[in-house]
Amino acid sequence: MKRFAGILVALGLIGLAAAFTLWILPAEEFIFTPGNAKPLAERVTVEGARPIEEGDVYYVDVFVRRTTRLEDLLPFLRPEGSTVVPEQALLPAGTSEAERDRQTAAEMSRSELVASAVALRALGQDVVAKPQGALVIDVASDVPAAAEIDSGDVIVAVDGVAVQTPDELRREIGRRKPRDEVELTLQRDDETLKVSVKTVASPEDPNRAIVGIRVDQQADIEVPIDIDIDLGRVGGPSAGLPFALEIARALGRDVTHGCNIAATGELALDGTVLSVGGLRQKTIAARNADVDAFVVPAGANAEEARQHAGDLEVIPVESFQQALRTLTTTGRKC
Predict the structure, then answer these.
(1) Cα separation, 183 vs 188, whole angstroms
(2) Which of 145, 163, 243, 253 could bond to 248 as cystine, CB 3.0-4.6 Å?
């Protein structure tokens, strides 16, 4: 009997060791889980800031990690509100995790500068932005350009013709026909590259050529006052909207009315609010933080947020200017 009990104990220990190994052993997929909603007041410093009223502007983050082997075997072990995505969705072929970390850090740095420019310009201050090309924000996965162009590339010429703005890029591409091959001159990190890609037909107009990329203005930006933003190791561009709202708040615009307002959204240099990922996880994080409203990009992002918001008010916006106007003129009091 004692021998049998010893065997059971040994098997139990082996099972625990196996489970522990499977738990710590990373798999090939990534998992998004709800992060935290945190106030920005102590993370954004603005020269000439005024006394701030009650309420806070919150940014929302998402935890991203690899799934474990045990979570693959037993999906119910995954955290509530999580989403599993294939490795190639985050790490395209030839991209390492270290390279992705550098890219998200660069996106965060740019979002801080763009948010400062957008907020100050909306408040009537002089902002200088010298155009330097079309910055690639995103590349459709099903177009030929996906094999040659990366997010973060800056397009400066089309078939040798210089382009300094997204409008100039669209004009040059629009002169081609679908399935024409074009040579794009790119700036990637410290290199200048030339790549050839085939255009595709626009979904809205089959006779119009597009490359299948989303772009914003790349510019040398100068703002008239000092603004410092520090989120530590958080990366990516999706805190641009809350950054700009906090800057406006620090300079005297009452965007909270005593409430706690969470926000997410990438900002383009013209103030357009661009869609972001992880809305399920961000909405759950905002709801768990018990904020009073959640400002999100209009469209599919807002629809997804409403699915997980419960009683949390979701405010869809298309631009920073709209967000600022909506929040400062609301009758909401907390």
Answers:
(1) 15
(2) 253
Interior/surface letters 252-274, b for 16+ CB within 10 angstroms, e for the rest: ebebbbebbbbbbbbbbbebbbb
The pLDDT-based confidence of 163 (bands split at 50, 70, 90) is very high
Q: Do residues 193 and 157 touch, judged by C-beta distance below 8 A?
A: no
Do 283 and 312 share a structural domain? yes
Give the residue from 280, 276, 288 showing the smallest Cα distance to 317. Answer: 276
Q: Within 10 A of 49 (CB to CB), how many other CB atoms are there?
A: 16
Please give the single-letter amino acid code of residue 197.
Answer: V
Tell me if 26 is assigned to some domain: no
Whether 195 and 139 map to the same domain: the answer is: yes
**Does residue 321 share a domain with residue 276?**
yes
309-321 residue pLDDT tens: 999 999 999 999 9
For 67, residues 6+ apart whose C-beta sits below 8 A from its C-beta are 26, 27, 29, 30, 31, 78, 84
Q: Residue 333: inside a domain, yes or no?
A: no
pLDDT at 94: 63
Question: Are 248 and 308 contained in the same domain?
Answer: yes
Taking a C-beta distance cutoff of 8 angstroms, is the pair 215, 136 a contact? yes
Number of domains within the chain: 2
